[in-house]
Amino acid sequence: MKILVLNAGSSSLKFALFEGGRRLGGGVVERIGERDGVKDHREALEIVERRVAEDGLLHSFDELDAAGHRVVHGGERFTRPVRIDEEVIGAIRATIPLAPLHNPANLEGIESMAAKVPTLPQVAVFDTAFHQTMAPEAYLYAIPRELYERYGIRRYGFHGTSHLHVAKRAAQILGRPLDTLNLVTLHLGNGASACAIRRGESIETSMGFTPLEGLVMGTRCGDLDPQIPLFLQRKGMDAEALLNNRSGLKGLCGENDMRRIEAMAREGENEALEAMRIFARRVRKYIGAYSALLDGVDALVFTAGIGEHSAPIRQMACGGLEHLGIELDEERNEKGERRIGTDRSRVEVLVVPTDEELEIASQTEAVLSRSRL
Fold it and tell me: Is residue 250 predicted with pLDDT exceeding 80?
């Protein structure tokens, strides 16, 4: 099956082409809707078609078997990937208030492809779907219940496609069925989240109603006293912009790229080292909390840009967790090996590259295969 995976943002269109689980190529069209860029997502899709043709991958989109789309928010309705039809499009549109920056762009990608190749099967894969296995005690906030019932205010969680992908890969590495494992997965990048996975199902995750909650991130604050935004607003500040775009690592040391922060710390810049410690401490706190929820952990999994490439952050995050059975091997960690725990560590510590596009392609093929039965 030839599957084109699309991740449509407000000003970009990322794409990857797969066949039989193998990535054939991919790229991104940027500056959509900007003065010196392309007009809209339909024009961006024309560029994608030209690129895959120039690369000798396809003559045209008519050769595709399906398109798989990343959709950020599926609300409570979507607990798994679905084939897209008018009803699904309407339901995605209804969740726009929950993801006003993402779902409109995701819909643009879906509708642009439908206009270009009307007969092509399309599948929506939701960032939130994997976390729909959480129990009410995990997803409900301690606020008046009517706010949940009327406005859908609850924990949804994000990065679900990534957490599921690395959980499945961890099971393969360990040679055990996923439904026999308890895992803590750590998606650490400019956006960051932790997930507690019991026997293949998400039981808790650090992001909440929005992607702002939880771990310290590149520009997002993560966990915060909820009175602080109200205080900032009384001071005349735009709390939403400040906490989403000017906080996190950037707020602490002026940089949100961990590679640059590590370099600054090596050069003796104390604020950079402090930012690293704050970032890692929050990760370590979630590892401990999720270990308690899971009643023991079989493996700790680091993934995404920071998780896969920052040995210092992994070292800081795992430091002092020997009582939980987590022991890091410094040499293996520095080399970036796949298994970075010591031989005596009771908990496996893994570095597993994420591949959300591959997971979307795999889930798209699975949905279409089921629909043909």
Answer: yes
3-state per-residue secondary structure call for 280-296: HHHHHHHHHHHHHHHCC
Total-model pTM: 0.94
Rounded to whole angstroms, how far apart are CA atoms 317 and 326? 10
User: End-to-end alpha-carbon separation of the chain, Å?
Assistant: 16
Contact criterion met (CB below 8 Å) for 122 and 113: yes
Separation of CA 229 from chain center: 25
Query: What is the distance of C-alpha 318 from the center of its chain?
Result: 22
Fold for 2-126, please state it: Nucleotidyltransferase; domain 5 (3.30.420)
Q: How far apart are CA 108 and CA 257, in angstroms?
A: 30
pLDDT in tens, 259-295: 999 999 999 999 999 999 999 999 999 999 999 999 8
Which residue type occupies 212? L
Q: Minimum mean pLDDT among 97-101, 214-218, 220-224: which range? A: 97-101
Cα distance between residue 325 and residue 334, in whole Å: 20
Q: Which CATH architecture best describes the domain 160-351?
A: 2-Layer Sandwich (3.30)
Is the distance from CB of 181 to CB of 170 less than 8 angstroms? yes
Contact 312, 298 (CB under 8 A): no
H or E segment and range at residue 6: strand 2-8
> Alpha-carbon distance 207 to 205, whole Å?
6
Would you please indicate which residues are annotated as catalytic (active-site) residues? 127
Name the 3-class secondary structure at 219: coil
At 373 the pLDDT is: 55
Query: What is the C-alpha separation between 154 and 73, in angstroms, rounded?
Result: 13
